[in-house]
UniProtKB/TrEMBL annotation:
<feature type="transmembrane region" description="Helical">
    <location>
        <begin position="310"/>
        <end position="333"/>
    </location>
</feature>
<feature type="transmembrane region" description="Helical">
    <location>
        <begin position="1119"/>
        <end position="1139"/>
    </location>
</feature>
<feature type="transmembrane region" description="Helical">
    <location>
        <begin position="751"/>
        <end position="772"/>
    </location>
</feature>
<dbReference type="GO" id="GO:0030301">
    <property type="term" value="P:cholesterol transport"/>
</dbReference>
<feature type="transmembrane region" description="Helical">
    <location>
        <begin position="678"/>
        <end position="702"/>
    </location>
</feature>
<keyword id="KW-0753">Steroid metabolism</keyword>
<keyword id="KW-0813">Transport</keyword>
<dbReference type="Pfam" id="PF12349">
    <property type="entry name" value="Sterol-sensing"/>
</dbReference>
<keyword id="KW-0472">Membrane</keyword>
<keyword id="KW-0445">Lipid transport</keyword>
<protein>
    <recommendedName>
        <fullName>SSD domain-containing protein</fullName>
    </recommendedName>
</protein>
<dbReference type="GO" id="GO:0008203">
    <property type="term" value="P:cholesterol metabolic process"/>
</dbReference>
<keyword id="KW-0153">Cholesterol metabolism</keyword>
<keyword id="KW-1015">Disulfide bond</keyword>
<dbReference type="GO" id="GO:0030299">
    <property type="term" value="P:intestinal cholesterol absorption"/>
</dbReference>
<feature type="domain" description="SSD">
    <location>
        <begin position="644"/>
        <end position="809"/>
    </location>
</feature>
<comment type="similarity">
    <text>Belongs to the patched family.</text>
</comment>
Length: 1298
């Protein structure tokens, strides 16, 4: 970049010296100074004897303008490796002849070789070049910034008019007859300083996600100002400035000196050599107005109240008025159609009756056969169970959260597979959050001046020493896997391997090289401590990539693993960027994850187990440690499941005992052991469990893995369905009277013919509903639905076969007066009269008549009120799963979650992945991705950067790292980073001193442009293998080698990623919103890059997306699954109720009310919507069938005259069985779950199960009978006629008049 004006050249001339001095301030051993002057090639017109800007403005004499204050280098400076300049007060001297050998230096530094005179020699030019290399690597992204900076240093170093603005104030002798310049004053225009700072303040350092000034100013960029930046660069304490330079900022002449006020460029300006303005990422002025987050949509309100609530209140009031009017009108004009046998039935009614009769005949014959051939049926059942359950040998229980919650076909799962395949799996994380009960030390007082700096208690030196001991103990942990010794070094992340085998440890101790000696390192002036661990910390948090803290300590900040340790990753509990106020230390051990490598993964798991055990047992009164390992959550979930086994067993034992005792109908104390049905109850329970085992076995044959949800929920579901059917069969028999001449097998067959269609209706409805639930994309829901559907169906088959045979045998035992269980013992003869049980008599004589009284029935309007409330709050149910709920109450992970929310400031990393297919070899392809000069304003990097400006909305916390932009800076010929051996073509690292090493690209105008085509690919592998070093901080090995997938034998670029971080995410809503916003951003990038219709796209990836993606669609999934289940229940009910559509509608309506009310309970009880609660909702849909279908079918086949009478009959007969069966059985077992230590059991099982049973019982036993009494289907005349023809003239004729 070559300004042609004399003025610009003057600026460029002095830039050299400062850049030399300044470069040292950036990184130790001047690794970062190489090429800002490089990009500028001003002619030496400024060296002409004509008047300079200073002369014109301030009238300074021509003679003084030609006066130098130094020339050449002399003695060794007190700063190691540096030299003083030689004092010289004569005119500028022509560049010596040997300068011909260094035309590249002149080109690099912006000088046009000719007969111009300078105040610097060739060696000073070399020093200037070395000093500018590091700034070039970081600031040349913005041409105007580096041009201004180059002016500052070149004017200082080489200007022939140094005496205008430089004043030597201290000298020392240099034998034999020269003097060293030890101290100078540099008069700098305040306007110039401000302009230089303004052009540079926004320039980014892509590899470290921070602004470049954080690496070049000695403190965080937010605290950097024009004056303290220049003062820092000129301070000998930075380890790079060879002598003291005192900047004096003024815009007017002072003490006879005129300030250096050369022309500057703003970051939005185009330079005279054609260099474009800086990008938006590096120059906020180029961005236009700062983006403003869209306003949050206001809540829907009516008259200041929640809109949905108002609408539902109005709807309920309208319903109440209509309902009351209808009830009053119906009471005044009461009439009820009576179905008499003589009336003609419709075709549909006749078809329904025939279908009903066919089912009755089928089940009657089958029941009779089962009683007559019990041995055959029982053996066949045992064979069936054995055959199905043998599949358990192939059983596989999956506890992998990815397999549980993410479908293989889901977007997040596919993106995870793509990321893992191309870049390797995301590393495993072992993390500790350490606090201390100790009080902070007194504030630190910087030397020699400065405000006191408070330090948090964890940053006390004695605490840091203890933490270092603790960290070292962890590093030395050893585990054993398959007889092999496993240490952290075997599994840890080593980004610079094989050159550097140190493990990555993100810890504040890495600022001190994980060394007690470095932590204790101090310097003094004999009286005062000039630098210690405090000053080193303050520097490192501002410039974590520095190799020299530029304090008198000169210790590196870079971690021992070869990478920077960013303060926001290792400190917690600070405010803004005041890292010194940290109240917590965060230590992270990234461990390699292994894609499809079981052995290596096993080693990592073994070491993690040792890590967990060690930290659990570690004790230090000064340290409070919260921690987590990658395996912790899975381990704790497994432990939680094991700890709740006893609770679950007690729950099932209570249900089993109740079933065994409640089935019996005790006639007298004498016959207690005869009339009890303990053995039959146990057999019924075994049948239920057998159906569950069969289901597990069948799907294990197929290869579908089990989940903990299947194991925990399905027995509860099938027990509910199975127990209900058992009670219906047994209690129907107990109420039945055997007709004369009727044998036992005929009686049981007849009973089964009466009740089996109802059982078939409920079981088949549930089976179809559950199987259709298998269409869900959520693995947990799909697996549960498939297992549940088959288990319910097998349970029905076994109940109408094996259980019927066992019932026949038990009745024979009872009739022969043999004791239950001890069937060999027989009581003396004596048959008791049969009588109805207490519960049946209560329902028949008290409950049913009461519920169906004229003045009681209208009270069911309360159910509609509850429904209205539930609809009003259904959209307020939270979505997600608080991760703390998945842990046991006593889990150490809960402490970690709490500390993470309280102390951490940075969220998970997020990668914007560009899939394979993008053309990086063309300028157009590069511009659509990169973020530097010339890149599109809507490029990938700039869009992510723009999103980070409104992080509270986008959840993108930082500027993205960009391998492409760093590669462009690395390959510039001015940088000195990209070199190769001239003879072999092999890469030559910048730290190598070898004359055969040449720049990758020539120092020509075309060579300074971005590489394209084969040039781009020729040097990219070198960049990705280059380790950062003091002479080149842009090497891409550590930062980017894993993020760029080279294909075609390194001839092209495949998939790549650009990494940044999310903001801190604390709740499920935060995680969901972060993923949603990142996907929206990636979709917009894909669109603006013009990738529509191509084979690749841009997508975001973070490790948590695969778990939280389900919540993006869970509302739809819930509506879909429940709607499909309800639809299936409606269709099956329509068919099996003899095509009585209205009956099926009422069944479906009642179940829908139960489901909607479940959402109301979820809102009231703080139960969020997630995969676990969705499984329970699907299950509640199935269980609700048991509460409703039996009542409705009993109503539909009743031959009573009025709806009220039919509802009363149905409620008396079926209601008592439903209440004593499913309701009481489940209620007793559910109460025990409240004692569980597991929060997830207490919330998602106890609370939801209790709500399912209570809502099902109240709707099935209160609301539904009343609803049927009002709007139930009319009596089926064909069924009435068939009943009359079947019963009239027989002993059962009295049943027609119940």
């Amino acid at each position: 970049m070559a300004p042609s004006s004399c003025t610009h050249q003057v600026q460029n001339a002095d830039a050299g010296l400062q850049s030399q001095t300044w470069s040292s301030t950036i990184l130790p051993h001047s690794p970062y100074y190489t090429s800002h002057c490089t990009s500028y090639t001003p002619s030496l017109q400024y060296c002409s004897p004509g008047p300079s800007i200073s002369e014109v403005v301030f009238g300074v004499s021509q003679a003084r303008a030609q006066h130098c204050i130094w020339y050449g280098e002399c003695g060794e400076s007190q700063v190691p490796g540096k030299k003083y300049n030689c004092n010289y007060t004569g005119p500028a001297l022509p560049l010596p002849e040997e300068g011909h050998e260094h035309e590249d230096l002149l080109e690099l530094l912006g000088f046009d070789y000719g007969n111009r005179s300078l105040c610097c020699d060739v060696q000073q030019l070399k020093t200037l070049k070395a000093s500018l290399e590091l700034p070039l690597q970081f600031l040349s992204r913005c041409p105007a910034c580096f041009f201004n900076l180059m002016n500052l240093f070149c004017e200082l170093t080489c200007s022939p008019r140094q005496s205008l603005f430089l004043n030597g104030t201290d000298f020392s002798p240099y034998p034999p007859d020269q003097h060293n310049v030890v101290k100078v004053s540099y008069y700098i225009g305040q306007t110039f300083a401000n302009a230089m700072y303004n052009a540079c303040r926004d320039v980014q350092a892509p590899s470290s996600n921070v602004r470049a000034l954080s690496l070049l100013c000695g403190q965080d960029a937010s605290h950097c100002t024009p004056t303290n930046w220049i003062e820092y660069m000129f301070d000998t304490n930075n380890g790079q400035t060879p002598f003291a330079i005192k900047p004096i900022f003024t815009d007017v002449p002072e003490a006879g000196f005129s300030p250096m006020t050369n022309t500057t460029y703003g970051c939005t300006d185009i330079l005279e050599d054609g260099s474009g303005p800086c990008s938006c990422q590096d120059c906020s002025q180029s961005c236009g107005p700062k983006p403003v987050p869209p306003p949050q949509p206001p809540p829907w309100t009516i008259l200041g109240m929640d809109g949905m609530s108002v609408v539902m209140w109005i709807t309920y009031v309208v319903f109440l008025l209509s309902f009351v009017g209808g009830v009053v009108g119906a009471w005044c004009y009461r009439s009820e159609f009576a179905a008499y046998p003589g009336m003609d039935a419709s075709c549909c009614e006749r078809f329904g009756e025939r279908f009903e009769n066919a089912l009755r005949i089928l089940f009657t014959s089958w029941g009779s056969f089962c009683v007559r051939r019990p041995l055959v049926v029982i053996l066949a059942s045992i064979v069936l169970v054995a055959a199905c359950s043998s599949g358990l040998i192939y059983m596989h229980v999956t506890t992998d959260p990815v397999e549980l919650w993410s479908s293989p076909s889901s977007q997040a799962r596919q993106e995870k597979e793509y990321f893992d395949t191309h870049f390797g799996p995301f590393f495993r994380t072992e993390q500790l959050i350490i606090t201390t009960p100790l009080v902070p030390d007194p504030p630190y007082s910087p030397y020699p001046i400065g405000d006191d700096v408070p330090f948090g208690a964890p940053l006390r030196k004695d605490v840091l020493h203890q933490v270092l001991d603790f960290q070292t103990d962890i590093e030395n942990l050893e585990a054993t896997y398959q007889g092999e010794r496993v240490t952290l070094k075997d599994i840890c992340l080593t980004p610079l391997a094989p050159y550097n085998s140190n493990c990555t440890i993100l810890s504040v101790l890495n600022y001190y090289q994980n060394s007690h000696d470095v932590l204790d390192h101090t310097t003094t002036d004999g009286f005062w401590t000039t630098a210690d661990y405090h000053s080193h910390f303050l520097y490192c948090v501002s410039a974590p990539a520095s190799l020299n803290d530029t304090t008198p300590l000169h210790d590196p900040c870079m971690g021992t693993f070869g990478g920077p340790v960013f303060p926001w990753l290792i400190l917690g509990g600070y405010d803004a960027t005041n890292y010194n106020n940290a109240t917590a230390l965060v230590i992270t051990f990234p461990v390699n994850n292994y894609h499809n490598d079981t052995k290596k993964l096993g080693k990592a798991l073994a070491w993690e187990k040792e890590f967990i055990d060690f930290v659990k047992n570690y004790s230090n009164p000064n340290l409070t440690i919260a921690f987590s390992s990658e395996r912790s959550i899975e381990d704790e979930i497994n432990r939680e499941s094991e700890s709740d086994i006893s609770t679950i067993l007690v729950s099932y034992i209570i249900m089993f005992v109740y079933i065994s005792l409640a089935l019996g109908h005790i006639q007298s104390c004498r016959r207690v052991l005869v009339d009890s049905k303990i053995s039959l109850g146990i057999a019924g329970i075994l049948i239920v469990l057998s159906s569950v085992i069969c289901s597990l076995g069948v799907f294990s044959y197929i290869g579908i893995p089990l989940t903990l949800i299947v194991i925990e929920v399905i027995p509860f579901l099938v027990l509910a369905v199975g127990v209900d059917n058992i009670f219906i069969i047994v209690q129907t028999y107990q109420r039945d009277e055997r007709m004369p001449q009727e044998e036992l097998h005929q009686q049981i067959g007849r009973i089964l013919g009466d009740v089996a269609p109802s059982m078939f209706l409920s079981s088949f409805s549930e089976t179809v509903a559950f199987f259709l639930g298998g269409l869900s994309s959520m693995p947990a829901v799909r697996t549960f639905s498939l297992f549940a559907g088959l288990a319910v169906f097998i349970d029905f088959i076994l109940q109408i076969s094996c259980f019927i045979s066992l019932l026949g045998l038990d009745i024979k035992r009872q009739e022969s007066n043999r004791l239950d269980i001890l069937c060999c013992v027989k009581l003396s003869e004596g048959q008791e009269e049969k009588s109805d049980g207490f519960l049946f008599r209560f329902f028949k004589k008290v409950y049913a008549p009461f519920i169906l009284k004229e003045w009681v029935r209208p009270l069911v309007a309360v159910f509609v009120g509850v429904l209205s409330f539930s609809i009003a709050v259904i959209n307020k149910v939270e979505v997600g799963l608080d991760q703390t709920l998945s842990m046991p109450d006593d889990s150490y992970v809960l402490d970690y979650f709490g500390n993470m929310s309280e102390f951490l400031h940075t969220g998970p990393p997020v990668y914007f992945v560009v899939e394979e297919g993008h053309d990086y070899l063309t300028m157009e392809g590069q511009n659509s991705v990169c973020g530097g000069v010339g890149c599109n304003n809507n490029s990938l990097v700039l869009q992510v950067y723009t999103a980070s400006l409104i992080s509270s909305y986008t959840k993108i916390g930082f500027t993205p790292s960009s391998w492409l932009d760093d590669y462009f800076d690395w390959i510039k010929p001015q940088s000195g980073c990209c070199r190769y051996y001239n003879g072999t073509g092999a890469f030559c690292n910048a730290s190598v001193e070898n004359t055969t090493c040449v720049n990758c690209r020539p120092m020509t105008q075309s060579g300074k442009q971005r590489p394209t085509g084969q040039d781009f690919m020729r040097f990219l592998p070198m960049f990705l293998s280059d380790n950062p070093n003091p002479k080149c901080g842009k090497g891409g090995h550590a930062s980017y080698s894993a993020g760029v997938d080279l294909i075609g034998n390194d001839t092209n670029v495949g998939a790549t990623y650009f990494m940044t971080y999310h903001t801190i995410l604390k709740t499920s809503a935060d995680f969901i919103d972060a993923m949603k916003k990142a996907r929206n951003l990636a979709d917009n990038i894909t669109d603006t890059m013009g990738l529509q219709g191509t084979s690749y796209r841009v997508f975001p990836y973070s490790v948590f997306y695969v778990f939280y993606e389900q919540y993006l669609t869970i509302v739809f999934d819930t509506a879909f699954n429940l709607s499909v289940s309800l639809g299936a229940i409606f269709l099956v009910s329509t068919v099996l109720l003899g095509f009585e559509v209205w009956s099926a509608v009422l069944v479906s309506l009642t179940i829908a009310m139960i489901l909607v009310n479940m959402f109301g309970v979820m809102w009231l009880w703080g139960i969020s919507l997630n995969a676990v609660s969705l499984v329970n909702l699907v299950m509640s849909c199935g269980i609700s069938v048991e509460f409703c279908s039996h009542i409705v079918r009993a109503f539909s086949i009743s031959t009573k005259t009025t709806r009220v009478e039919r509802a009363e009959e149905a409620l008396a007969h079926m209601g008592s069985s439903v209440f004593s069966g499913i309701t009481l059985t489940k209620f007793g077992g559910i109460l025990i779950l409240a004692l569980s230590k597991s929060q997830i059991f207490q919330i998602f099982y106890f609370r939801m199960y209790l709500a399912i049973v209570l809502l099902g019982a109240t709707h099935g036993l209160i609301f539904l009978p009343v609803l049927l009494s009002y709007v139930g289907p009319s009596v089926n005349k064909a069924k009435v006629q068939a009943a009359h023809s079947r019963f009239v003239g027989t002993e059962r004729e009295h049943l027609l008049n119940f």
